[in-house]
Amino acid sequence: MEFERQESISVEDFAENYLKLNKPVLIGLSATSEWRARKEWVVATKDKATGHINETPNYDALLELFGDHTVTVAHCNQKYFSDQERTDMKFKNFINKIKNKQEGSMTTQLYCKDWHFVLEKPEYVAYTTPAQFSSDWLNIYCQSKPNPDDFRFFYMGDDRTWTPFHQDVYSSYSWSANICGEKHWTFILPGQNHLFTDSFGNTIYNIHDYDKLRYPDFEKAKKIELIQRPGECIFVPSNWWHQVENRGVTISINHNWCNAYNVTNIIGRLHFDYSNVVHALRDIQDMDGFLEQCQIVLKAENGMSHSECISFLLYIASVYLDLANDDESEGEDQSENGSDDDDYAIDPSSGFRPDASFSIAYADPYFTSQPSIIYALSRIKKAFEMLVDGTGISNIKYKPVFIPNLLETIESTTKEIDSVLSRN
Ligand SMILES: O=C(O)CCC(=O)C(=O)O
Ligand SMILES: [Fe+2]
Q1: pLDDT tens profile 63-97
Q2: Where are the alpha helices (DSSP H) in 198-289?
Q3: Is residue 16 classed exposed, middle or buried when 0-12, 13-18 and 19+ CB atoms within 10 A define those classes?
Q4: Signal peptide position in this chain (predicted)?
Q5: What is the chain's Cα-based Rg?
Q6: Is the shortest distance between the CB of 174 and ligand 1 below 6 Å?
Q7: Cα angle at 396 between 392 and 399, to 5 degrees?
Q8: Could you tell me if the CB of 244 is within 6 A of ligand 1?
Q9: Cβ distance 390 to 319 under 8 Å?
Q10: Which ligand is nearest to the CA of 257?
Q11: β-bridge partners, 72
């Protein structure tokens, strides 16, 4: 299978052909051409050997911007469980290590990853999210929290740094834009997990160097490979396994995100991870508080408990219900800011601040059109159903527990969704 490339693509075509079909695509330079990061973080240099013009990091600009920040750096030659060993260091020390070896042929194998640079320096607007990726429920929700966090990252790695074989957190999508350097991506087509999973559930760490006795059939796996160049942007679909290698010092910006098209995958993954936790803790199944314990372990190992997932969905539901009701009451008297805060079905004890205006400002108009609102609400309803039924949990005897009142709030929110769906 060939990797698809689109020089530029409308939001609607992207939704129809890639979000809906959950297929990867590479978008050409159009998405990033105006970014400050593309203009200020790179310099054009002439390759001594070939005479070609290359884009390399503008170390001085990067040092001035971020030098004193602390970043997490992976040591790509040191395996740590299913990931790489990581340490914290000042960004300036990281840059100096990479810079000072430049004359030699060696690589430091150092890879600065998952750095929340927007949260740390919001006043420096390095980029704008391409419209195709702007229906981003995960980041909208994270930024609405009393202590906002996010899934917006800065990556910078020396030549030959790499990211082990994985699928993305929570079955989210990712988009990743290259600022300089090249990324070599390998995607394994969906439906082949059995080829890279052993009988204990362990998956391959490095697809270019793995134990052929343990994974004898992996060489038969169907894959797609792609080289991503500076300024190009890649869409990584939900649940697709992939590995990435950098060629040349490489900088990228990426988001993990989700929306109406993959929200049910988020629940499927939560239930898969939960089933594994129930299984891992099987020796204490008869203990009091077993189900609560499972939620604590689920949160610690996978980042999200059931209650948090529900709070996330309730928040997003409140945003879309507000949009739907605003639309409905167009022309009627509205409150000053055009929204009606009393309409939120969110549980106040969850501590989340409904702020529909944030999401409206953030998403491309295509994603807030009436058909998109209806589609989103129907997918949220489906996700609630899966949560309540325990769809995908391997041993339904151990249905997950939620914090008190969440079930009732799901019920009342579903009723509100139904009333919107029935009038459309
Ligand atoms: O760029 C990398 O090293 C990894 C990026 C990745 O895995 C992703 O964007 O999903
Ligand atoms: Fe990834």
Answers
A1: 999 999 999 999 999 999 999 999 999 999 999 99
A2: 263-280
A3: exposed
A4: none
A5: 23
A6: yes
A7: 95
A8: yes
A9: no
A10: 1
A11: 88
